[in-house]
């Protein structure tokens, strides 16, 4: 069942065209990995999906509904968002920030109830971050801040999560914690994930874990659906798109079977 679809999408800032003729659809339980260089329009595309920007041409559907016909609350009940960076202005506790993820389900004058608090505590515990519960949000490290944003999205309990470079500020261990959590939630809840990332190995990681994944390359105002990671992330395609020579390695891991990983070798002459 298609849960998110974009048809003939076009968007510009003034006379500057950001993308045009973008088409894709994502089914329940499927992940779309959008790969592209800085400045290619990934974040702008995400803003259109979230209803923040309005397409100049084309349409975006959530299930059977046009995004333009939904209220912000209705969109927030269907899509959670993890930004690339979150500016911290106010000294809320981590728990307060997490409970904001329950806002689409509470009325204007009501407060989160015991069930909402339990959901937040369960997520903290599952990520091994319960010790952050009462910490001042403005005093967290960059990596801790990103983890809180991811937890807030999980607490929002939507069928779709959109992530803009979700591991950009995370250390080696917490990057893996986030990816493991994504895999578990996609499998357990049938979540649909749209993830913009600079790291094509993320797509391989999800595929290695048995998640249905589509890869899309975004560059020069276009989004090119390229198929599964195994089909799309070939050495030739990576060299053409990134101008980087790579080697695709296949390993046998006990308990996981065959897994694939991209090893960067060297950058290529961009003038060729």
TrEMBL record:
Residues 4-245 form the ABC transporter domain. InterPro entries: AAA+_ATPase, ABC_transporter-like_ATP-bd, Metal_Ion_Import_ABC, P-loop_NTPase. Keywords: ATP-binding, Nucleotide-binding, Transport. CDD domains: ABC_Iron-Siderophores_B12_Hemin. Pfam families: ABC_tran. One of its GO terms (molecular function) is ATP hydrolysis activity. PANTHER family: IRON COMPOUNDS ABC TRANSPORTER, ATP-BINDING PROTEIN, METAL TRANSPORT SYSTEM ATP-BINDING PROTEIN TM_0124-RELATED. This is Iron complex transport system ATP-binding protein. It comes from Desulfobacula phenolica.
């Amino acid at each position: 069942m298609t849960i998110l679809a974009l048809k003939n999408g076009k968007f510009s800032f003034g006379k500057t065209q950001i993308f045009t003729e973008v088409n894709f659809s994502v089914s329940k339980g499927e992940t779309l990995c959008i790969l592209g260089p800085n400045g290619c329009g990934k974040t702008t595309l995400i803003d259109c999906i979230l209803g923040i920007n309005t397409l100049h041409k084309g349409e975006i559907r959530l299930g059977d509904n046009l995004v333009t016909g939904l209220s912000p609350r209705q969109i927030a009940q269907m899509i959670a968002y993890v930004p690339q960076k979150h500016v911290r202005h106010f000294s809320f506790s981590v728990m307060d920030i997490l409970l904001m993820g329950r806002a689409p389900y509470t009325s204007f004058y009501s407060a989160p109830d015991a069930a909402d608090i339990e959901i937040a505590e369960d997520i903290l515990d599952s990520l091994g971050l319960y010790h952050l519960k009462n910490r001042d949000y403005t005093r967290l490290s960059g990596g801790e801040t990103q983890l809180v944003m991811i937890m807030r999205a999980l607490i929002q309990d939507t069928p779709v999560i959109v992530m803009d470079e979700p591991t950009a500020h995370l250390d080696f261990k917490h990057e893996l914690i986030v990816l493991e959590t994504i895999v578990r939630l996609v499998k357990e809840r049938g979540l649909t994930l749209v993830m913009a990332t600079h790291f094509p190995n993320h797509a391989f990681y999800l595929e290695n874990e048995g998640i249905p994944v589509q890869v899309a390359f975004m560059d020069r105002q276009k989004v090119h659906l390229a198929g599964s990671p195994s089909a799309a992330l070939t050495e030739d395609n990576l060299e053409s798109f990134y101008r980087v020579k790579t080697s695709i390695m296949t390993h046998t891991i006990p308990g996981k079977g065959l897994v694939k990983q991209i090893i960067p070798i060297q950058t290529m002459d961009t003038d060729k």
